[in-house]
Design brief:
By secondary structure, the chain is mainly alpha-helical. Helices cover 29% and strands 1% of the residues. It folds into 2 domains: 198 residues, Cytochrome Bc1 Complex, Chain D, domain 2 (Orthogonal Bundle); 156 residues, Cytochrome Bc1 Complex, Chain D, domain 2 (Orthogonal Bundle), CATH 1.10.760. The chain is built from 12 helices and 2 strands. A two-stranded antiparallel ribbon has the order 1-2. Strand 1 and strand 2 form a beta hairpin. Its main location: other. Keywords: Heme, Iron, Metal-binding, Oxidoreductase, Peroxidase, Signal. It is found in: Cell envelope. One of its GO terms (molecular function) is metal ion binding.
Length: 394
C-alpha cells in the first residue's frame, strides 16, 4: 500500500469518528457531482444506473393508508438505491458471507424460511421478521422486544451483533469503525457516496438513513384485500371480489369476542394489519433451542400482510421462536391461550378478570374462514420487483 493510500485511510478514520453527520446532504436525486460509471458497471452491470434511478420515492399508496412513520428521513431514489446496495452487500459482515438480505430474502417477503438465520459466529436468537410495509406501521420500534426506538437505529445493530454480522469488537472481532474503513476502501462506495452525498465520507448515520429508506420503500398493496377494499366504503361491507368463506373470515376477524368473533382487529388494525404499539406479550414465550427457558419480553410482531406468498405458501415459520409452522396453529393458539407463568400477557388475551387466558370457542370452520381471509392480505409484486432485488452481478 502506497503512502498516499495510507494517508487517505488515516484521514478517513479521523473523519468518520466524528459524532453526527455534519456534511452537506446533496442526495435529492442529482447532486451535480461526477462519478465513474465504469466502476459501478463492473460491480452492478445495468442494475444500478445513477442517471436513471428506479422509483422508490413516489410509489403509489392506497388512499386508505394514512399512517407513515418516516419521520424526517424522507425516501429519495438516490439514498434508497444506496440502501439497496448496502442491504445486499456481504462486505457488511466480517467474513464477507452475510448480508442483511441473507436473513431477509425477497422471495420470502424479506424473511427467512429457516427457523433462525445463520450468522458469521453462530445463529440469530430469534426468527427473522418479515420486512413488509415497515413505513406504514403504527409501531415504530423494532426487533421482537422493541429495543430499537426507530428503524434507523435498528439497521446497524445486526451488523454489530457478534453472532450475526460480527462487527462487535468482542473477543478480538473487528469494530464498527473497522467496517466504515473497510467500506471506504471499496471503489463502488466511493462512487455511490460521492453521488448521493457529494463526498466519499461514510458514517453510521449515513448507513442508517440509507438502509432505512430502502427498507421503508418495500411495500405490498396489490393483494386481493386491497382490490376489494378499493371498491367499498369501509371494511365492514362485504367485499365483492371475496368468496363467501373469505368474507366470513373477514367478519370474524373484525368482530369482537363478546359478539362471537375472534377480535383479531383489536391488536392488528386494518388496513395495515400491523401490531398495536401498546401490545404486550401474545402468549408465545418459547426460546429457540431451549425447551425449558421462557421469554416474556416479546411484544412486537410483523404485519399480517404476506404471511403467505402469492402462491399460498407460508413465508417461513411463525412467531419469534419459529414454534408455529402453520397459520392454523397460530389461530388455534389464540383460540385457547395458556396464561401460565406469563406476567407480561396482554390484557386483551387474559380472558376476563380471572386472567386464565383467552378462550374464543372458535370452530374448525371459523378457523378455516379466518385463514382464508388472512391469505387475501398477500400481494404479488413485492416478490419480484427489480428495485428490491440483489443489484450485484453474480
Amino acid at each position: 500500500m502506497n503512502l498516499k493510500r495510507i494517508l487517505f485511510l488515516a484521514i478517513s478514520v479521523i473523519i468518520t469518528s466524528c459524532s453526527g453527520d455534519d456534511y452537506t446532504d446533496v442526495s435529492n436525486e442529482n447532486p451535480g457531482t461526477s462519478t465513474d460509471a465504469s466502476v459501478l458497471q463492473d460491480i452492478f452491470g445495468q442494475n444500478i444506473d445513477l442517471d436513471n434511478l428506479l422509483n422508490y420515492a413516489d410509489q403509489g399508496i392506497p388512499n386508505y393508508i394514512t399512517q407513515d412513520n418516516t419521520l424526517e428521513n424522507d425516501i429519495t431514489d438516490a439514498k434508497a438505491t444506496l440502501g439497496r446496495v448496502l442491504f445486499y452487500d456481504k462486505n457488511l459482515s466480517t467474513d464477507n458471507t452475510i448480508a442483511c438480505a441473507s436473513c431477509h430474502q425477497q422471495a420470502f417477503a424479506f424473511s427467512d424460511q429457516n427457523d433462525v438465520s445463520t450468522g458469521v459466529n453462530g445463529v440469530t436468537g430469534r426468527h427473522s421478521m418479515r420486512l413488509i410495509n415497515a413505513r406504514f406501521a403504527r409501531e415504530s420500534r423494532f426487533f421482537w422486544d422493541e429495543r430499537a426506538n426507530t428503524l434507523e437505529e435498528q439497521t446497524t445493530q445486526p451488523i454489530q451483533d457478534h453472532a450475526e454480522m460480527g462487527f462487535s469488537g468482542e473477543n478480538g472481532a473487528p469494530t464498527f469503525q473497522d467496517l466504515l474503513t473497510k467500506l471506504e476502501g471499496l471503489n463502488y462506495y466511493q462512487e455511490l457516496f460521492q453521488s448521493v452525498y457529494g463526498n466519499t465520507t461514510i458514517t453510521e448515520t449515513r448507513l442508517q438513513e440509507s438502509l432505512a429508506q430502502f427498507i421503508r420503500s418495500i411495500q405490498s398493496f396489490d393483494s386481493k384485500y386491497d382490490s376489494g377494499r378499493a371498491t367499498v366504503q369501509n371494511d365492514n361491507q362485504q367485499f365483492p371480489n371475496f368468496t363467501d368463506l373469505e368474507n366470513t373470515g373477514k367478519d370474524l376477524f373484525f368482530r369482537p369476542p363478546n359478539q362471537n368473533g375472534a377480535g383479531c382487529i383489536t391488536c392488528h388494525a386494518a388496513p395495515e394489519f400491523d401490531i398495536d404499539p401498546n401490545s404486550l406479550n401474545n402468549g408465545v414465550i418459547g426460546v429457540f433451542g431451549n425447551a425449558t427457558a421462557i421469554d416474556i419480553t416479546i411484544t412486537r410482531a410483523p404485519t399480517l400482510r404476506d404471511i403467505f406468498n402469492d402462491q399460498g405458501v407460508l413465508n417461513g415459520a411463525l412467531m419469534h421462536d419459529a414454534s408455529l409452522t402453520s397459520l392454523t396453529a397460530v389461530l388455534e393458539h389464540y383460540n385457547d391461550i395458556d396464561a401460565t407463568g406469563n406476567a407480561n400477557l396482554d390484557n386483551r388475551l387474559k380472558g376476563g378478570p380471572a386472567g386464565n387466558g383467552q378462550n374464543l370457542n372458535l370452530s374448525a370452520e371459523n378457523i378455516e374462514a379466518l385463514e382464508a381471509f388472512i391469505k387475501t392480505l398477500s400481494g404479488t409484486n413485492v416478490y419480484t420487483d427489480t428495485k428490491w432485488s440483489n443489484p450485484f452481478i453474480d
